[in-house]
């Protein structure tokens, strides 16, 4: 059985004047998932996250949190969310304790419950030893921990993290990734990044966003487990992508337009001969059949550069 849907975005769209930053994006986050939004700079990740967290109104489409519309019941919906924006909203002149107490009050946590809320967020984010330090004097890595602590202080089921490791040194990056993975045991997470290994290290599912649209949405295990990944095929006339899905070893077929298909394979299967045979038999005009190594990097480059080429051609 599939787990509970916590966030659902339907046809989410945002324009900034003439710029279409997010273009009809559909997104689902289920309980227990760590979903990585991966995309080049300017792809629309931050805009998507601002809309998912109710910090920016969509031009069209809607966001449902726990089945409730973010537009119609913003207060209840936002209670279920913790958000760490790209610029962490931390105040350098406050101590960690003062700041987290303030965040707890903003979330409506009763005064008597705040010390426990602060202590537990500090525990989860490894901040217990810096309670009385001024945030402005902490390293960037620790400031980011404080940013994570404010996102979880009200124990939301979902946390949304925009580029959580940007600007950190390699050791801090490892620590924050490990922290996010640990937080992912009790929270469902959406995080954005343009760093591929980060997504592979931390996330259970990856959505590649390019020019405001989702061009890939798969479990990370699908990327890791494939032996040679996928097959790129071009046919002059394939009656229907589903005919390929009936062949042994074929897991899924994505139609990419203009006769191009991405054929994902099961485990170590190699259905190329079967595809060629079926193509000859069916008269599909097989023009190309190529095994693709399926690292996330290759998928990313292929999907984002093909999109750019199509846009240029248009
Ligand atoms: N306030 C704004 N006004 C006008 N255009 C904007 C605004 N914010 C973002 N954009 C544009 O919208 C598009 C998507 O931007 P967005 O910041 O969502 O992308 P991103 O994937 O988060 O990129 P980055 O990784 O660089 O933060 C870009 O073309 C950007 O220039």
From TrEMBL:
InterPro entries assigned: AAA+_ATPase, ABC_transporter-like_ATP-bd, P-loop_NTPase
PROSITE patterns, per database record: ABC_TRANSPORTER_2
Domain of life, source organism: Bacteria
Alphabetical keyword list: ATP-binding, Nucleotide-binding, Transport
Taxonomic placement: Bacteria, Pseudomonadati, Pseudomonadota, Gammaproteobacteria, Nevskiales
GO molecular function (one): ATP binding
Sequence similarity: Belongs to the ABC transporter superfamily.
Listed CDD domains: ABC_DR_subfamily_A
ABC transporter domain: residues covered: 7-236
Entry keyword ATP-binding: yes
Name of this protein: ABC transporter ATP-binding protein
């Amino acid at each position: 059985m599939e787990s509970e849907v916590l966030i659902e975005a339907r046809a989410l769209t945002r324009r900034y004047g003439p710029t279409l930053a997010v273009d009809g994006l559909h997104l689902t986050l289920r309980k227990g998932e760590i979903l990585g939004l991966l995309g080049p700079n300017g792809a629309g990740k931050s805009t998507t996250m601002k809309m998912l967290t109710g910090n920016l109104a969509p031009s069209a489409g809607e966001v449902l949190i726990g089945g409730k519309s973010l537009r119609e019941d913003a207060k209840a919906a936002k209670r279920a969310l913790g958000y760490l924006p790209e610029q962490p909203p931390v105040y350098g002149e406050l101590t960690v304790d003062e700041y987290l107490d303030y965040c707890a009050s903003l979330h409506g946590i009763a005064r008597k419950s705040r010390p426990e809320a602060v202590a537990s967020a500090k525990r989860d984010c490894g901040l217990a030893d810096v309670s009385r330090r001024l945030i402005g004097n902490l390293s960037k890595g620790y400031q980011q921990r404080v940013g994570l602590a404010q996102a979880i202080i009200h124990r939301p089921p979902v946390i949304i993290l925009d580029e959580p490791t940007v600007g950190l040194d390699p050791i801090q990056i490892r620590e924050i990734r490990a922290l996010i993975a640990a937080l992912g045991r009790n929270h469902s997470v959406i995080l954005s990044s343009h760093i591929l290994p980060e997504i592979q290290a931390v996330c259970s599912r990856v959505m590649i966003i390019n020019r405001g649209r989702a061009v890939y949405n798969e479990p990370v295990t699908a990327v890791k487990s494939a032996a040679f990944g996928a097959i790129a095929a071009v046919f002059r006339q394939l009656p229907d992508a589903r005919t390929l899905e009936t062949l042994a070893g074929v897991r899924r077929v994505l139609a990419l337009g203009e006769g191009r298909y991405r054929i994902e394979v099961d485990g170590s299967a190699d259905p190329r001969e079967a595809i060629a045979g079926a193509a000859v038999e069916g008269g599909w005009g097989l023009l190309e059949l190529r095994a693709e190594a399926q690292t996330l990097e290759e998928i990313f480059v292929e999907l984002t550069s093909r999109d750019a080429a199509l846009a240029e051609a248009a």
